[in-house]
Design a protein that fits this description.
Layout lengths: L7 H8 L16 E4 L2 E3 L8 E5 L2 E5 L7 H10 L7 E5 L5 H4 L2 H8 L2 E5 L3 H6 L12 E3 L4 E4 L2 E7 L8 E9 L2 E7 L19 H14 L4 E3 L8 H9 L12 H29 L1
Parallel strand pairs: 4-5, 5-6, 6-7, 11-12
Antiparallel strand pairs: 1-2, 2-3, 3-4, 8-9, 9-10, 10-11
Helix pairs in contact: 1-2, 6-8
The chain binds zinc ion.
The site of zinc ion has 4 residues, from loops.
């Protein structure tokens, strides 16, 4: 982190040019414990999580290759070793969530886990420097990824990408167990809903995703971009939390409201694109 001494690896990486794209997305964000062994180690705009266990760690989402140095610094700032990452769960198949997979693999030797339906898109990416997107394990709906005493279950909720995977996990705090949720994305921005050759049934499939997303008993939720789950506001509450205060990341109502909000945005976008297509005819 700025102003702090860095390890050899972190210094090496930080010395390479940070190609933030779009600008500012790779600015550091204070790493923090969300709950239990789940930590935020992402940048200001691109979320990444670390799940720590006695048998090494799981990293969820590498983001851009230029995000990896920021993630590495965040992990080490929290007192963990980046080199102890054993599993990398690849983010959804957009460059801002998976471009760094090859570099994380190179630095840690982690097993890289990719969703089956995301595979063709992930493998089509070309990370910088002639690297190849790594894939070590292919995941289907309902599969689990486990390390030490931590286990994550994959839920394919397509729409934002063909095989967008959200992950459920059990989290504990103060003797209570919570249903944790690492959301893929419900965002419709930049997606074509009319004459989408690659994903012809996208509207119906995405619509079903909203119905399914509501059925999970989510209590603690995070998502691929902080803005989807109120990261900044919740982090401020976390900083000001006094003994006995609730953990701000416990937010079942906020989760349902988030699904409602993104469903309304999706329906509005579909209607707009359909109206535009009709007026072009
Ligand atoms: Zn995306």
């Amino acid at each position: 982190m700025p102003g702090k001494s860095c390890t050899f690896l972190a210094c090496l990486l930080l010395s390479s040019v940070l190609q933030a794209q779009p600008p500012g997305w790779n600015d550091p964000f204070p790493p923090h414990r969300v709950m239990d062994n789940l930590y935020y180690v992402g940048t200001s705009q691109l979320a990444s999580w670390l799940l720590t266990t006695d048998e090494g760690h799981i990293l969820v989402s590498s983001n851009y290759e230029s995000s990896v140095s920021v993630i590495l610094a965040a992990v080490e700032d929290l007192g963990f070793k980046f080199s102890d990452i054993r599993i990398l769960i690849s983010g959804h198949a957009h460059p801002d969530h998976v471009e760094g997979d090859a570099l994380v693999k190179q630095l840690t030797g982690a097993e890289v886990v990719v969703g089956r339906l995301e595979l063709p898109y992930v493998q089509a990416f070309q990370p910088p420097g002639g690297k190849v997107q790594p894939v070590d394990r292919i995941i289907d709906d309902g599969d689990t990824v486990s390390l030490g005493d931590t286990s994550l279950t994959a839920h394919v909720l397509p729409g934002h990408t063909r095989g967008c995977i959200s992950w459920s996990l059990q989290l504990e705090e103060a003797g209570q167990t919570y249903y944790g949720w690492i959301e893929c994305s419900l965002n419709n921005l930049g997606i074509r809903f009319v004459d989408n050759q690659e994903f012809p049934d996208i509207v119906e499939v995405f619509r079903e995703t909203f119905t399914k997303a509501r059925e999970f008993p989510v209590e603690v939720f995070v998502s691929s971009h902080g803005v989807f789950y109120g990261l900044e506001e919740k982090y401020v509450k976390l900083l000001n939390r006094k003994p006995g205060d609730p953990n701000p990341f416990v937010d079942p109502t906020g989760y349902q409201a988030h699904v409602d909000e993104y469903e309304a945005l999706f329906e509005a976008m579909v209607a707009r694109q359909q109206a535009e297509a009709a007026s072009d005819d």
